[in-house]
């Protein structure tokens, strides 16, 4: 199986993705979500997403693809991520321009080309070092993913130690997405991320459509 197919297609098993989606929604709705909401109420923090009219393509397609490629693609392809991540970051900074769009397209093309030709791209010695450090890298990426979502909140007078509790749902989701990426490929983590984001977007749409009319 080619590198492209293994990364992008092999993990796209509908039954598996739907089972993981059910697990994530249950954990977030029954456990982590209520805890995060309680901390937000306690600290006077507000979720900014309730006030924004975010387009579906951006939340359900664009964000999952970019976040997975930036944060989790390198978990199994560290050599490629060394150059891919800076390229994606530059493209994101200029995403509203034609140059930014072309740069992101070039990054995607380079990824596919390198996956088709290279397995890892690092020497065995460097790979051994990376494997030893992998648990730290994995959890650091998951924590970074959660911390970045603090930007979804308008923070109140919260003590610093309470802030991580606001993004517990993202932390739990990040663990699952990271595991899926490592075990089955980047395509599976992008797909699950997109499906997961579609749930809150549907709820927000319902609130905006019917809550405002109440």
What about the largest sheet? 2 strands, antiparallel
Radius of gyration: 18 Å
Helical residue percent band: over 70%
Structural class: mainly alpha
Q: What is the succession of H and E elements?
A: HHEHHHHEHHH
* Tally of separate domains: 1
Q: What's the average pLDDT?
A: 79
Can you give a write-up of this model?
The structure is a single chain. With 214 residues, the protein is mainly alpha-helical. The chain has one domain. It contains 9 helices and 2 strands, in the order H-H-E-H-H-H-H-E-H-H-H. Helix 3 (56-72) packs antiparallel against helix 4 and helix 4 packs antiparallel against helix 5 (98-117). It comes from Pigmentiphaga soli. GO terms for molecular function: peptidase activity. The chain crosses the membrane at residues 20-44, 87-115, 136-155, 161-180, 187-207.
Question: What's this model, at a glance?
Answer:
By secondary structure, the protein is mostly helical. It has helices at 3-8, 14-43, 56-72, 78-93, 98-117, 124-148, 163-166, 168-184, 186-211; strands at residues 46-47, 153-154.
List keywords for this structure.
mainly alpha; globular; 75% helix; single chain; two-stranded antiparallel ribbon
Write the layout of secondary structure elements.
Blueprint: H1 3-8, H2 14-43, E1 46-47, H3 56-72, H4 78-93, H5 98-117, H6 124-148, E2 153-154, H7 163-166, H8 168-184, H9 186-211
Antiparallel strand pairs: 1-2
Helix pairs in contact: 2-8, 2-9, 3-4, 3-9, 4-5, 6-8, 8-9
